[in-house]
Specification:
Strand order of the largest sheet: 1-3-4-5-6-7-8-9
Strand content: 35-45%
Distance between the termini: 40 Å
Low-confidence stretches: 19-24
Mean pLDDT: 90
Structural class: alpha+beta
Largest sheet: 8 strands, antiparallel, barrel
């Protein structure tokens, strides 16, 4: 099994375990939630945070886990795969209040233009959505000024979530790859 296949398998198993854990923790609570769902009103939540992706230094939050034989020759690093566990903050500075973490993977999927396939779980560790998460899966065209990606689900307060996330690069070091990305998220949930 290749490194890439193993990484994708582990990521898929992790997402499946998250779903099982979120539905099996309190079966009675889930049953009550489902019963209320029929009478529930859909909510719209707007979220704003900064994503700090650090590939450099002694303690990177993102690491390369696989590459294709052509990745180093490709102008878009086609076939390169990274795994990340990035802090999310209220403001763009690394010293801003931590509001959660983003965990997932991104791989260079474009041959003509740098376009990442992004699979990311965003979970919140403070405030109203503490313990809840959103899952984002989509194309991230890094050099576009604003990128839009779909929300495909969530846990906790974001069960049955759908919506979108808009990403805008706040800072990018082209040498190290370190980036700070501003996110505006609109999530519809019950």
């Amino acid at each position: 099994m290749t490194k890439l296949a193993l990484v994708l398998l582990l990521f898929s198993l992790g997402m499946a375990m998250q779903l099982v854990q979120s539905t099996n923790n309190e079966p009675k609570g889930v049953d009550k939630w489902i019963q209320k769902l029929h009478h529930g009103e859909e909510k719209v939540s707007r979220l704003h945070f900064y994503f700090h992706d650090t590939l450099s230094g002694k303690n990177p939050s993102a690491v390369e886990v696989a590459e294709a034989s052509i990745s180093k020759k490709s102008p878009t690093s086609f076939g390169l795969l990274n795994i990340f566990d990035d802090p999310l903050t209220e403001g763009p500075k690394s010293t801003s209040k931590l509001v959660g973490r983003a965990q997932g993977l991104y791989g260079s999927a474009g041959q003509q233009e740098l376009g990442l396939l992004l699979a990311m779980n965003v979970f919140f560790t403070t405030g109203k959505f503490n313990g809840s998460s959103l899952t984002i899966l989509g194309r991230n065209a890094v050099f576009h000024s604003i990128r839009e990606m779909p929300i495909i689900g969530g846990t906790g307060a974001f069960r049955l979530a759908r919506g979108f996330a808009q990403a805008k690069t706040h800072f990018l070091n082209l040498t190290s790859g370190d980036a700070i990305v501003e996110y505006h998220v609109v999530a519809m949930h019950y």
